[in-house]
Amino acid sequence: MLDGFLAESILGKGIAKQLLEVEVRDIRDWCTDKHRAADDRPFGGGAGMVMKPEPAIAAIEAVQTPGCRRIYLTPDGTPFSDSMAREFATESHLVFLSGHYEGIDQRIRDSVIDQEVSIGDYVLTNGTLPAAVIIDALARFIPGVLGDEKSLTHESFTGKLLDFPQYTRPAEFRGMSVPDVLTQGNHGEIEKWRTAQCVEKTRHVRPDLFKKYRHESDHQ
Ligand code: ADE
């Protein structure tokens, strides 16, 4: 699931430039029974299978390093955020555990996991794509990964409002034209227009973010 993701695009270039390194491991390599089973039925009954403690704990103990942060991807974790991505980007070693069943034995969480993270209120079949999402988001905050470091501060969530609409050439396309203010060269007016667009869009699409933005502006 990760090979293409790790080879392509901005992330692939960052890895090629050795700005970050990603190693993928298979938990089954730490399964010792003859069927190489990483899961078993839940004590107490119920649907689905549960990840066994021995292979997962052995796997994490084999890859962890002193001071690393061990993260379990799960829909019942703390919601992932822009600030988490920035913080993770400063860490020297992250270990991600992807669950693959109905859940994992609680003793894994209790003994070898430092933090539990969810990428949103929906359930995926496993934590591999969530780990990829987090790697992608944090990579943008590693110096040198994005060509233009400036583009970071102007983006959504940093300023607490959603982005303004962008246009490029041609100025006229299928009867749709670029707003006049953007082609007239008055930078003060362009700034005002962009801010108004951000406010309008955020109020409409993300009333939750808009409320926070209003609250913060009131207290400045
Ligand atoms: N594993 C399954 N669903 C997930 C989610 N929404 N976030 C993190 N890990 C998950």
Layout of helices and strands:
Blueprint: H1 3-7, H2 9-16, E1 39-40, E2 50-51, H3 53-63, E3 69-79, H4 82-89, E4 94-98, E5 103-104, H5 106-112, E6 115-118, H6 128-139, H7 150-153, E7 172-173, E8 176-177, H8 180-183, H9 187-205, H10 207-218
Parallel strand pairs: 2-5, 3-4, 3-6
Antiparallel strand pairs: 1-2, 7-8
Helix pairs in contact: 3-5, 4-6, 9-10
The structure holds adenine.
How would you describe this structure to a colleague?
With 220 residues, the chain is of the alpha/beta class. It has two domains: 3-139, Alpha/beta knot; 154-218, Trp Operon Repressor, Chain A (Orthogonal Bundle). The protein is built from ten helices and eight strands. The protein has helices spanning 3-7, 9-16, 53-63, 82-89, 106-112, 128-139, 150-153, 180-183, 187-205, 207-218, and strands at residues 39-40, 50-51, 69-79, 94-98, 103-104, 115-118, 172-173, 176-177. The strands form three sheets. The chain has a three-stranded mixed β-sheet with strand order 1-2-5. Strands 4-3-6 form a three-stranded parallel β-sheet, with helices on both faces. α4 (82-89) links the parallel β3 and β4 (94-98). α3 runs parallel beside α5, α4 (82-89) packs across α6 (128-139) and α9 (187-205) crosses α10 (207-218). The longest helix is centred in the C-terminal third of the chain and has 19 residues, at 187-205. The mean pLDDT is 94. It binds adenine (ADE).
Can you give me a brief rundown of this structure?
With 220 residues, the chain is an alpha/beta fold. It is 41% helix and 14% strand.
